Hints:
Layout: E1 3-9, E2 14-20, E3 25-31, H1 43-55, E4 60-66, E5 80-81, H2 86-91, E6 94-97, E7 101-103, E8 107-111, E9 114-118, H3 121-132, E10 137-141, E11 146-152, E12 155-162, H4 164-174, H5 189-198, H6 205-217, H7 223-240, E13 250-253, H8 256-268, E14 273-276, H9 279-289
Helix pairs in contact: 3-9, 4-7, 5-7, 5-8, 6-7, 7-8
Amino acid sequence: MTHLVAIDWGTSSLRxxxxxxxxxxxxxQSHARGILTVEPGGFRDVFDSLFGAWMSEPGTRCLIxxxxxxxxxxxxxxxxxxxxxxxxxxxxxxxxxxxxxAIVPGLSDEHxxxxxxxxxxEVQIFGAVALTGLKSGLFVLPGTHNKxxxxxxxxxxxxxxxxxxxxxxxxSQHSILARTLDASAAFDEAAFLSGVAQADNGEGLxxxxxxxxxxxxxxxxxxxxxxxxLSGLLIGEELRTxxxxxxxxxxxxxxxxxxxxxxxxxxxxxxxxxxxxSEATWAGLHALASS
Length: 291
């Protein structure tokens, strides 16, 4: 392999990087061409139009992670069950064009008979392990559906998904709270941390969320503050279900806007964090491509 074309093909977006044999990122590109924008049977055409130039050099291999491997994607790559590390995931990579283009399978876990899944986050976790040297610990990936993964000796032993981002969108845009908060307002750290603290009162999210309405009714918070307060309530509820106080450093992987909030919330609980962004994806795909 002379070069790796590393692709993270999600539901709404598509990112790619051209990586050399030593793992150095040479070029990057990003497009609003998630799998939902691709017509049935059109994945190859989209791929060729965006990455054909990168793939033209002999010896170049492409690995694709994310929703392109789902039932709605290019080719379905069945999930790899936990516990799983690089060898297990590598063994289940689905070839599209043998030796040249392939899809990473994603991971599955099960809790009390209910399955849980991730696609793309497993690559970020492997990349974070490679970049930080932390082969065991707690890895948190904020997003629309947040993942909390436990890693031991470089293998993902299990994980849980939380619909925190989606619930924030539903409450802030489609519930009665949408009338009294401004979801477009700048982040307010004090209001956010107030929400995180309130989530730990033992009353539960269904009660605490109503407080985001009454704080407006009694003019104790502005519309902008309430958006950050609600975000703090939801993230605080998520943290409340995890034994974060029993952990040392937590590794956060994701966009700066989200990892900042989780870092603040965890710091308020006395938990240190380390943050990574897109570099984790590229490092993880390079690790999978390297035998």
